[in-house]
Structure formats: structure tokens, C-alpha cells
């Protein structure tokens, strides 16, 4: 998996070596939690062998950390399950370091005043 120059310079060698293939896969899916991907797409995006990614996805599925439908994979929406997985924490920390943490207030400033129609349907 390639990293940007800033991450290369600011991240210790131990931190970079810590991220296993499942951690990298889970980190990628977490960063793209609004989409589902095929294993080969994930492999291409994070620069790993498709076989290694497929194996990691199967193991993550066994732990109920990802969901699988047909040929597509997506991260689970069970936040308690994710919080209990230490690899998720390491991957999230690396992505936060690389991309910055989310600013909830900034999200709120740009949120629409009216709820989405699907939210109204649920009530």
C-alpha cells in the first residue's frame, strides 16, 4: 500500500509495520463506508495482492466485521463490534493521521435543515 510523503515522514517504522492486511482492508472499507467493493477493487486501491485481500475479507467476515453479498464487500455498521477490534483502532488512527479527524461541528454547519425523506418515512 502506498502512503503519502507526509505520513512517511511523520509515522514511525513500528507504526507502519503494525498494519496487517486485514487492518489495511478494514481501514479502506471504513474510509469508504458508504460503498461496497469487489475484492479486486480493494486490492487495487490499497496496493495488495487480490488473494491476500480475499483471505483477509473471509477472516474479517468470520469475525462479523464485514458483510458480503454476491461479489461485494462492505464494512459492518455494528459500531460496537468494530470498537472491540483492535486492528480497526490502529487502522482508524493511521487514516485519521493521514487524512485528519472528522470535525462534527463542520458536518453540522453543512447539514440540511430538513431531515432526509427516508428519515421521515421511518417515523
From TrEMBL:
Residues 24-69 form the HTH marR-type domain. Signal peptide: none annotated. InterPro entries: HTH_MarR-typ, WH-like_DNA-bd_sf, WH_DNA-bd_sf. It comes from the Archaea. GO terms for biological process: regulation of DNA-templated transcription. Residues 100-123 have a biased composition (Basic and acidic residues). This is MarR family transcriptional regulator. Residues 99-123 are annotated as: Disordered. Gene3D superfamilies: Winged helix-like DNA-binding domain superfamily/Winged helix DNA-binding domain.
Amino acid at each position: 500500500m502506498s502512503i503519502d510523503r507526509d505520513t512517511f515522514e511523520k509515522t514511525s517504522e513500528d507504526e507502519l509495520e503494525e498494519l496487517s492486511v486485514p487492518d489495511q482492508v478494514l481501514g479502506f472499507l471504513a474510509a469508504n463506508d458508504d460503498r461496497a467493493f469487489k475484492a479486486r477493487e480493494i486490492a487495487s486501491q490499497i496496493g495488495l495482492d487480490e488473494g491476500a485481500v480475499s483471505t483477509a475479507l473471509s477472516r474479517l467476515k468470520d469475525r462479523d466485521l464485514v458483510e458480503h453479498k454476491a461479489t461485494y464487500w462492505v464494512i459492518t455498521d455494528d459500531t460496537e463490534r468494530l470498537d472491540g477490534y483492535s486492528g480497526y483502532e490502529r487502522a482508524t488512527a493511521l487514516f485519521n493521521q493521514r487524512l485528519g479527524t472528522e470535525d462534527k461541528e463542520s458536518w453540522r454547519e453543512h447539514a440540511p435543515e430538513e431531515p432526509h425523506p427516508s428519515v421521515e418515512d421511518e417515523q
